[in-house]
Design goal:
With about 475 residues, the protein is an alpha/beta fold. It has 13 helices and 22 strands. It starts with a strand and ends with a strand.
Length: about 475
């Protein structure tokens, strides 16, 4: 029986997660993500390497855009199968996809007007990659699954989802092909141990083949205990200078975790009680999803809730949904905290807040998440003296700071901790979802520590497994 795996995304780069599993001519996708790196975005517009009509099911690890963001395009081009994921992933993916579609429609309009004014054409079509209606067409296909309960797809193929500890409802997926027999484990994005709100990643004991992420495969995170210390220092120093704290933040998990820490600092009276804005309708909607799913919370979070407190609300917190409310933030005098998406500054309201604050030396731009190569966020973090926002160049005069401890991705030590859970050596480990240096470093360390056969696949490379 032929079983093959083709790497259709997240190869030697971080975004665009997508893997095609073929079992005796029957096809399944693991993830279907959007490319966010500037030099790779053209792939979003290219035809899928495999005909969407030929794919029977999608196994979705979680609801981040780089894992689910091309689902509307897949459905638009003919996919009609089930999209299997946890119930929380399905809820969050609906929010994420609608937001992505809205942003693409708005960006397409903006680019068309700008190109008409400048009498030129950009590198991409002046139409959205997909619309809100396209996004909605995905929703009926979501098929919720529970952790650690085998789901049969066809007679010879079953899938089991395990908690990845990355974001609410995120999954490690193990696929068993009984007629092989052969088993594959896809790590998705692995989370970290001892983080607040959600549980630690599940350990998997055996697999023939492992597809593992390597986003932070070449580095270690700051200690979690340092997060509050650094957050406190940045806020106080910026307030003393009379500036704003601008925080580009992912709407899913990162914003909620940030509010958790801010809440604790306020209760401990360690930071000024500033006006704090969550200027992201998507993040606000995701907060509501968290309320629906306490079954995914860890013990610390459950104790927080049982004490009668809300980790996501505090005095002076303003949740801004409308455009008018968002614009009004810029009329405020005195320091405030502005949390807005997107986390890599590739779109959304954060761009408007950057325009208004990045030229002010008294302000701070605080990054609390990974910035992929080729994104605006990466340019700023890497020390660009000026950046292009909304078609115009802006000098970077604000204080740019980064707290790595917030990351929801396992670092090198934590990735090794997860892989140590395997009781027997896999036949092969495929290293994905990492930039070249991170993936190469992690492959070398795996070889030294475990003597496992490791590979870093190329884009569209196909492996015959049996």
């Amino acid at each position: 029986m032929a079983v093959s795996l083709q790497f259709m995304g997240a190869t030697r780069n971080v975004t665009g997660s997508c893997f095609l599993l073929e079992v005796k001519g029957r096809r399944f996708l693991i993830d279907c993500g959007l490319y966010q790196e500037r030099e790779l975005r053209s792939r979003n517009w290219e035809p899928f390497p495999a005909d969407p009509k030929s794919i029977e099911a999608v196994f979705l690890t979680h609801a981040h855009l780089d894992h689910c963001g091309l689902l509307p395009k897949l459905v638009k081009e003919g996919f009609k199968g089930k999209i299997m994921c946890t119930s929380a992933t399905a809820e969050i993916a609906r929010i994420v996809l609608l937001d992505a579609a809205h942003l693409q429609e708005e960006d397409a309009k903006f680019k068309k007007k700008r190109h008409e004014r400048e009498k030129r054409k950009g590198p991409y079509p002046e139409v959205p990659l997909y619309t809100e209606e396209d996004a909605k067409s995905v929703f009926p296909l979501f098929t919720p699954v529970e952790y650690e309960k085998a789901v049969k797809i066809i007679d010879s193929v079953e899938a089991v989802f395990y908690d990845a500890g990355h974001i609410l409802g995120s999954s490690i997926i193990k696929i068993n092909v009984s007629s092989g027999p052969v088993s594959l484990v896809f790590s998705g994005d692995l989370g970290r141990w001892d983080k607040p709100i959600i549980r630690d990643p599940a350990l998997i004991e055996d697999a023939d083949y492992v597809v593992v992420e390597s986003t932070y495969g070449d580095r270690l995170h700051e200690d979690l205990s340092e997060i509050k210390v650094k957050l406190c220092d940045i806020i106080i120093s910026t307030v003393n200078q009379g500036g704003n704290i601008i925080i580009p933040s992912f709407a899913v998990e990162r914003t909620q975790e940030l509010l958790y820490y801010l809440n604790e600092l306020l209760q401990e009276n360690r930071i000024p009680h500033l006006l704090t804005f969550v200027d992201s309708p998507m993040a606000i909607n995701v907060i509501e999803v968290f309320k629906h799913h306490p079954e995914y919370f860890d013990e610390e979070m459950l104790n927080f809730i049982q004490s009668g407190r809300s980790p996501f609300y505090f005095s002076n917190l303003k949740l801004t949904r409308s455009v008018e409310e968002s614009k009004a933030i810029n009329r405020i005098r005195g320091s405030c905290i502005i949390i807005a998406g997107s986390g890599m500054c590739t779109g959304g309201r954060i761009k408007h807040h950057l325009v208004n604050n990045i030229i002010r030396p008294e302000c701070s731009i605080l990054f609390i998440g990974y910035q992929a190569k080729g994104t605006l966020g990466r340019e700023i973090v890497d020390g660009a003296s000026e950046v292009r926002i909304h078609g115009q160049m802006h000098p970077v005069r604000a204080n740019v700071v980064k707290i790595n401890g917030f990351s929801a991705h396992a670092d090198q030590r934590e990735l090794l901790r997860w892989l140590t859970g395997f009781r027997s050596s896999p036949k092969r480990v495929f290293i994905v979802h990492g930039e070249e240096e991170a993936a190469t470093t992690f492959a070398r360390i795996l070889n030294e520590k475990f003597s496992w056969q490791t590979e870093i696949p190329e884009y569209l490379e196909k492996k015959i497994l049996i």
